[in-house]
## 1
Amino acid sequence: MAGSPQSRYGADSATSNLSSRTSGTSFFSRNARSNTSDAPSSLYGSITTSSRGASSVSNRAANGNAIASVMRKTAQPNRAQFTPSSYPGITNLAIASQKAGYDSVAARNPDIQPTTQDRLQVQSRTVSDAQYKRFAQYIEEQSGIVLGDNKHYLVNSRLSSLLLRFKVATIDELINRAMQPNIYKDISSAVIDAMTTNETLWFRDTYPYLALKNIILPELARSGKTPVRIWSAACSSGQEPYSIAMIVQEQATTMVHVDPNQCQIIGTDISPEMLDRCRFAHYDNHALARGLSAERKARFFKPTKDPNVMRVDDKIKQMVTFKQMNLLGSYSLLGRFDVIFCRNVLIYFSNDVKSQILNKFSLCLNPGGYLILGSSESIQGLSDKYEMVRCNPGLAYRLKA
Ligand SMILES: C[S@@+](CC[C@H](N)C(=O)[O-])C[C@H]1O[C@@H](n2cnc3c(N)ncnc32)[C@H](O)[C@@H]1O
């Protein structure tokens, strides 16, 4: 993840990449067709292995151990690095460990123990009042996330895990460094990443996917629009854009004129860690149990060597492209969309920022395009660019003519 404020805000060269799957055939081809088949140097600082040494890590990885499978041997014989970005084997435990911290990883795995030296490095896991105020302002400027006055505990818990990783003694010092992105690019990026909340699940709230299936896709089919472009803004670990892709695939089965090859789904998020997970597209049993029916699991996922982990089938995976993008930045390089899902992220922003984002979305929606927000989010008092459409259940917003 680029650490400078400018690059965090900018969309990159998305359009050329994102349009690469567009061919001349119609999204709603009448031809009968078959479905297209199917860290920085160390995240938690140096980690010693047991007396069994690094080779035991490799063996455990082969056996599918959740933590060992994301550890790599380093040049040092008895040390390993925990690097989720360099999968394979990112699992829910690893996901949890990143936010919860190195100590929780160690607690679960007797092979991973902080060295005495590592322990001594951490002197304070508590942010001071003065530093909290500076940090809250900084985070809002960088990501839009409003911390408010009393989230010291959140800052402490989210940033503690970074102290060992970056070998910084106190949270106040970590924040000092994070606020100098030109010097401490990795720290700055990791700190902002750590402050994001990535809760998500498959087919979250159900109604947006019913609206897509029953109202929006049929409407696009009638219009003959091609390609259909759908943006999952703030896509977290990928459940939202992959759920959208599954709906399109299901509709292709029941409506022969829907062609998944003519549907581009773009997932974006500020968090490079989440985007790694999206692209890897492996999900453990805990994640798979959240919102996914047995039928969809059987149809759209493939087993892996690890019995606790399944991967998204290629026919779904290839429908989605991922890009890092900060919603505070420009969207101009993403092109125009027929549908934007922006769910459960505006709640973290101020009304001013919400309003700016809603108005920027309106500029990259095609005429009659839809915006779908989270169930607790609304445009009321924030933007006059949309009309409300009742979908029964739920609602969506359509760009005004
Ligand atoms: C709670 S998750 C929502 C995921 C998904 N949309 C859903 O509803 O299940 C919020 C996501 O917003 C992302 N996020 C927070 N601030 C952002 C920003 N300024 N730009 C882009 N993404 C951001 C976070 O990284 C996180 O993955």
## 2
Amino acid sequence: MTSPDSQTEALDERFLEIISINGRDYQKYAVDRQISFEPVDDDEAERLELQHRVFHKVFDDRLIFPPIPHLRRVLDCGYGSGSWAIEIADQHPECKVFGIDICPHMSPDDVPQNVNLEVDDLNRPFTFPTKYFDLVQSRLVATGIHRERWPSYIRDIKRVLNPGGWVQLVEIYFNVQSDNGSITEKHALREWSTRYMGSFEPSKDLRVGTRLRNLLLAEGLTEVDARMIPLPLSAWSTDPRMREIGAANSENTRRLLHALALFPLTQRRRMPLDQYQALVARAQEEARTPSLKAYFPLYVCIGRKPL
Ligand SMILES: C[S@@+](CC[C@H](N)C(=O)[O-])C[C@H]1O[C@@H](n2cnc3c(N)ncnc32)[C@H](O)[C@@H]1O
């Protein structure tokens, strides 16, 4: 387990307490308050790194999507293992990179001097000053943001952006799709998706990826651009680039299917562990079956605070 020594201020003990369930570690604070149900152990940190490498391939090594000539301050909401924040800091030594996460456990011990990681709940109003950042990124936090928080979350992001500053949002829609329509209700991947997404009802919005454009427009962001990019679960594509992305994503998918739904299904929905393991094993098998052409839609959306 990585220690949260990299934090600049002494951490509230409540954020450090871990509970172990079914072989995975969770942050007690986040679980008790129903904020997040994802593991926070070394395995999960490793998976997030793996997934970050996949995103490098998906986005052709671009970490920042909008055109921003000078980066002075950047905020990463839900920094996880810190990979995005640290790479931004390395590439832009003149830029100060802030990160917020409810859980300090997955960040490395040593971070560059220009990285400042803080523990906070993104469901609460931001404490940063108004007009402070040139870019705010929020990537894969849908399982941790309360459904009714989204409009005020975007409003907070807009408030802390400089005029002309940008927000970039990335969310996976975990409702598995098939490029040739061959995944049916009988498939374990479909069952995994339905049960996983259902387990967050009604408190979280796992469909928020599809709503990012509307959320940004509703809060007055401009130059809004939203895309859906298929994220292949394995190397099934005949297109060489997509095939390479799928190959890279195969191991991430194998781990993701087990890690993400473990607490939601076995603890919140009381599915027996052996039944869960059997479902995940079948879903993993299907994910690597080329003929099913399985993918998760990945939603990417950018918007600009008016000048
Ligand atoms: C799936 S990980 C993604 C990490 C990183 N953004 C990435 O793309 O690699 C989600 C992260 O968001 C954090 N998170 C979820 N809900 C949060 C909340 N309400 N406040 C702060 N952090 C949160 C989790 O602790 C976890 O580290």
